[in-house]
Amino acid sequence: QRLGGQSAGAGGSLFDAAWERDGSPIEFGGTIDSVYPTLEPGMAVTMPQSNRKLKVVALAGEGYRAKVYQAVDLSNSQNVALKIIHEPSELNLVSIAAEGIKADVLESNSVPCARILEIGRDYALKQWIAGTLGDDWLARERQSGQPVLDATGAKALFDFYIQASRQRVIIENLKPANMM
Questions:
Q1: Beta-sheet strands, E only, within the chain
Q2: Which terminus of the chain has a smaller tally of CB atoms within 10 A, N or C?
Q3: Whose CA is closest to 20, among 66, 54, 48?
Q4: How far is residue 180's CA from residue 16's CA, in Å, rounded to a whole number?
Q5: What is the DSSP letter of 15?
Q6: What is the pLDDT of residues 52-105, one digit of tens each?
Q7: d(CA 119, CA 125)
Q8: By C-alpha distance, which of 132, 128, 18 is closest to 73?
């Protein structure tokens, strides 16, 4: 199955990846069934599929199923987003595997989104996009007293949901907090 240019589950687990702090290896211990650790700024990881070496900059956000970290790709100094599930529950694993499908649906509907760089069993590595979080934008729009979406915008959003459903993709996570 093709997911945003990546094969679902083709990669390994970040749990088994080579992690470092200040140049020294870190062993998280436990097994793949353990709860994933919280990463800290300065930690580095070598990605299982691409062998990219990333350095964690900060926690960028946290949702119900995963945490997203801002990291820098040490090979080209580009910022990237590293999304890691909280724990390896079935729903979390399915959610991370669907990252590529969600990106494909968004791109096919001309909705700007982060490009998928790598997908593994328990993580997704994405292009970093700086922008305004949906919740912040929505709050500003509501305070302005103007309609959040005009008729054209509302129709485009409705058409997007219809197109996604035809592709059998449930867009449950396009809540404002996940949109930029």
A1: 2-3, 6-7, 18-21, 24-26, 43-46, 53-62, 66-73, 78-85, 116-119, 123-127
A2: N
A3: 54
A4: 31
A5: G
A6: 999 999 998 888 888 889 999 999 999 999 998 888 788 888 888 888 887 887
A7: 6
A8: 128
